[in-house]
Design a protein that fits this description.
51% helix; alpha+beta
Length: 87
């Protein structure tokens, strides 16, 4: 498994969300092999919109990918809206 703080943990959780039939915190945790607290931290970031290219929502006890967006376009938007302007 990827070490704590490694960005690839987000992709592992997204892979579980995309693959599992019942996407509860417990099932995602089992599928990822990560600590429940770590999976929960990733899910909070996903729901909060902190990850470019994907929208995740929680319905009841399950988490769902609501939308996969154009990753490159989203990165450019984030950069344009938040980066320091040089020159």
């Amino acid at each position: 498994m990827f070490p704590k703080g490694n960005l690839n943990r987000i992709w592992v959780v997204l892979g579980a969300l995309d693959s599992l039939e019942k996407t509860t915190l417990v099932n995602i945790t089992k599928a990822c092999g990560m600590p429940k607290a770590s999976v929960n931290d990733v899910l909070i970031k996903l729901i909060d919109g902190q990850v470019a290219g994907v929208k995740v929502e929680k319905i009841g006890t399950e988490y769902h990918v609501a939308e996969w967006t154009n990753f490159r376009k989203k990165i450019n938007e984030i950069y344009s809206n938040n980066a320091c302007k040089v020159g």
